[in-house]
Amino acid sequence: MDLELGSDTAEFRAALRNWIAAQAPDALAGLTDWNAYVTPGGYGRRELAAAAEHPAYLEWESELRAQRLICPNWPEEFGGRGMDARRIAVLDEEFHRAGVPRVWRGMGESLVGPAIMAHGTAEQKALFLPRIVSGEDVYLQGYSEPDHGSDLAGIETRGVVDGDEIVITGHKVWTPESGEANRMFVLCRTDPDAEKCEGLSFVLIDLADPGVRYCAVEQMTGVTEYRDYILDGVRAPLSNVIGGLNNGWRVVATPRGHERDTPATAAHLGFEREFWELVEASRKEGNIADPLVRQQLAWAYTRVQLIRFTELRMLNQELEGDALSREALVARLFASEYHKRLGEIAIGVEGVHAMLRPDGDGYPISPWQNTFLASRADTINAGTSEIQRTIIGEQALGLPREPGPAR
Question: For a FRET experiment, which of 34, 106, 216, 227 has its CA 20 to 30 Å from that of 97?
Answer without folding.
Answer: 106
